[in-house]
Design goal:
Bound molecules: ligand LLP
Strand content: 25-35%
Number of helices: 12
Helix content: 25-40%
Radius of gyration: 23 Å
Shape: globular
CATH topology of the largest domain: TIM Barrel
CATH class of the largest domain: Alpha Beta
Largest sheet: 9 strands, mixed
Length: 422
């Protein structure tokens, strides 16, 4: 469910017409709906009513301060994977006691910053990280509360680039090795290992891989307890998929996911943490772009738009499908054309959609690339020296730019000419 709908033939975000935002901001731009962000957060957290669960939004999905602040006001915590994300979560008002720090390559300075901030939990992904965290915490007379991320060797059945729970993936500690690592953690000063963590991948559209992983985690908790470890917390990561193809896509509802969690884990009486990212932000954002040219080639028709792979890399990187809607709704009888929808970047991989049936569009028309709220703006670059796309947040009938488009001056000023070239 989201709040992007046609009203009188014009696509709106909540009560705001997209052409109005386009006139104020220029194109392309990302546009987020507060009501949709809030709704998704509530649906997910309410699915766990009655279970001792908390939601730490995976900031990587969309780390705009306004997005994090919208969720923080509802009580969300944050899952961060870098000092930069940690600083964003803090700046947006997430209290340190609701922040967990994931990631395979935390540097010394990141660990020190997180310790000094007093975050709630480090998700430790390797033995060297465990040793280093102990040293850095002990040197400061601190104790780091940790969960050990286990790799359950389960196939998440999602795109290979976003699958994280197989033995060959770099994430976590193999479940066979984990007991030895908990034993080591128990000996180490400055470490309190009361948790276990798992995350097997993103955009999972089937509960079975989750269930396989969570059952393995439950068995491990029982074994670890039998060995004397007081495991009281389980972090089950994120990964629940979202519909990208409107009503044709029906991933499991958070209620079904929560019921499955209860079946697998409920008897352990642990505090649960979830790290959803895409589920909250994905369908709460769109990328709005303008047609530059309609170009009819010998072989096919291209719709050349002003957004490109540097703005939204998902189609080319993960073969991802994003629905495309004309901002001005076409009549049912309108002529349809099969387009490759492409951007101006000088690469054949620069496309938003291939072979897509759309009403005939012409230069100047606006389109909306749907479901772009997660892993859109955060993965953008300035490739081809294209300014980063601005972001706009809508709330009911008002909107605000929450990130401005940088000027060309500001972009060029980031580089410096060394003295020998002056
Ligand atoms: N927790 C951890 C440890 C993660 O690595 C991730 C995502 C999440 C939580 C949130 O997963 P979600 O609920 O959003 O599925 N750029 C890719 C997705 C990369 C996901 C990386 N990790 C894409 O555009 O599909």
């Amino acid at each position: 469910m989201h709040h992007f709908e046609y009203r009188d033939g014009v696509l709106h975000v909540e009560d705001v017409a997209i052409p109005e935002i386009a006139a104020a901001t220029g194109t392309p731009f990302y546009c987020y709906s507060s009501a949709t962000l809030e709704r998704h957060y509530r649906v997910f957290s309410e699915a766990f009513r009655g279970q001792p669960a908390r939601v730490c939004y995976a900031v990587k999905a969309n780390s705009n301060l306004a997005v994090i602040a919208t969720l923080a006001r509802l009580g969300a915590g944050a899952d961060v994977v870098s000092e930069g994300e940690l600083r964003r979560a803090l700046a947006a008002g997430v209290p340190p006691r609701k922040i967990v720090f994931s990631g395979v390559g935390k540097t010394d300075s990141e660990i020190i910053f997180a310790l000094e901030t007093g975050i709630d939990q480090f998700n430790v992904e390797s033995e060297p990280e465990l040793e280093r965290l102990s040293e850095l915490a002990t040197a400061r007379d601190m104790t780091a509360r940790i969960a050990i991320r286990v790799n359950p060797d389960v196939d998440a059945r999602t795109h290979e680039k976003i699958s994280t729970g197989k033995a060959e993936n770099k994430f976590g500690i193999s479940w066979q090795r984990a007991p030895a690592v908990y034993a080591r953690a128990a000996e180490l000063p400055g470490i309190e290992a009361t948790g276990i963590d798992v995350h097997i991948g993103s955009q999972l559209t089937d509960l079975a891989p989750f269930e396989a992983a969570f059952r393995r985690v439950a068995d491990m908790v029982e074994n670890l307890r039998a060995q004397g470890h007081d495991i009281t917390r389980i972090d089950l990561g994120g990964g629940l998929g979202i519909p990208y193809r409107g009503d044709n896509d029906v991933p499991p509802h958070p209620d079904e996911y929560a019921a499955m969690v209860k079946r697998c884990i409920g008897h352990l009486g642990c505090e649960l943490t979830f790290e959803p990212g895409r589920l909250i932000a994905g369908n709460a954002g769109i990328l709005v772009s303008r047609v530059i040219y309609e170009k009819t080639g010998d072989d096919r028709s291209f719709l050349i738009i002003d957004a490109a792979m540097n703005d939204l890399i998902r189609p080319t990187l993960y073969d991802a499908f994003h629905e495309i809607r004309p901002v001005i709704e076409a009549a049912g009888t309108a002529e349809k054309v099969t387009y490759d929808v492409v951007g101006p970047v000088c690469e054949t991989g620069d496309f938003m959609a291939k072979g897509r049936r759309l009403p005939r569009l012409k230069a100047g028309d606006l389109i909306a690339i749907m479901s772009a709220g997660a892993y859109g703006a955060v993965q953008a670059s300035e490739y081809n020296t294209r300014p980063l796309v601005p972001e706009v947040l809508v709330q009911v009938d008002r909107f605000a730019q929450v990130r401005a488009r940088p000027s060309y001056d500001a972009i060029l000023k980031q580089d410096m000419i060394p003295s020998w070239l002056e």
